[in-house]
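Hi there,

I know you've been waiting on this one. I reran it after we fixed the sequence typo, so this is the corrected version. Both the input and the resulting structure follow.
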Amino acid sequence: MLITLTFRRAILAVLAASIAVVGGALLFQYVGGLAPCELCLYERWPYYIAIVAAAVLLAAGRWRVTGGALLTLVFIASTALAFYHVGVEQHWFAGPTACTGSGAAAGSIDDLRAQLLHQQPVQCDQPQWALVGVTLAAWNLVASSVLAALSCVALGLALKEPRL
């Protein structure tokens, strides 16, 4: 049996995937004990926005083109942020100073204390976990890319399908 992809089904898939990604991140954090770095926390925001936007689109049934465009832009931004995080992990890019291992040498005990107090407990450039050699940031890059494509398809469907 072949299922036809409609705007509503595409948005449902975006909603379900967004909930799954955020749920997985929270499970890794609270059940698995993996504390998120600063960039990991930033990478959750596009999913929070997508959950709200997709729920509103499904509930209201309006703003299909605007909603599809918003979700596409949210996941393009999410893909860019995830790519940046992967680049920080691979040392292609400099990460946020409070979140990476590259700190200046302390000139005194007071300077060292100040550095330690302002340093994040988890470093953005040191992955804590990987599956088949792929870090969580890289998996987020894959998920964000797929959801950007699906959101773009939803936008195309919103433009083609008759308004219900």
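Quick highlight: The helical segments are 7-30, 38-60, 64-89, 109-118, 136-160.

Best,
R. S.
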